[in-house]
Design goal:
The protein has three helices and no strands. By secondary structure, it is an all-alpha fold.
């Protein structure tokens, strides 16, 4: 059980769903062909004159494109992790401040009860 009365697995599920809704990460790109950059209509698509010509340059261009999207996705995931860590830190700081406020209020209630008992004792003694 977690602090909030929910199981930790439930918190993880909710957290991951929230992250998915906040960060729209592009899915992994899938190709129907057996090899990228083989030319127009052969799995390489018509991605420009170099790629449509096929051959070594088309393959190289396809490899660069795949590398670009891989790096982009890696950066998106790193940004997502950083933002999630900052959000967790922020909420932990809020929780700490709220607990300190609760303790302050409990102490104030205790002091008021003690003062009320002292006043009662004084009024009974007179």
């Amino acid at each position: 059980q977690s602090t909030w009365g929910l199981s930790k697995n439930m918190n993880v599920v909710r957290f991951s769903r929230r992250l998915n809704s906040i960060f729209r990460i592009n899915p992994v790109r899938m190709y129907s062909g057996d090899e990228l950059g083989r030319g127009s209509g052969k799995g390489g698509g018509a991605g420009g004159s170099i790629r449509s010509a096929g051959g070594a340059f088309g393959k190289m261009e396809a490899a660069r494109e795949e590398e670009y999207f891989h790096k982009l996705q890696k950066k998106q995931i790193a940004d997502m992790k950083d933002k999630a860590a900052k959000e967790v830190h922020h909420h932990e700081a809020e929780i700490k401040a709220l607990y300190e406020s609760i303790d302050r209020h409990k102490k104030r209630i205790k002091d008021v009860r003690h003062d009320a008992q002292e006043i009662e004792k004084d009024s009974d003694g007179k």
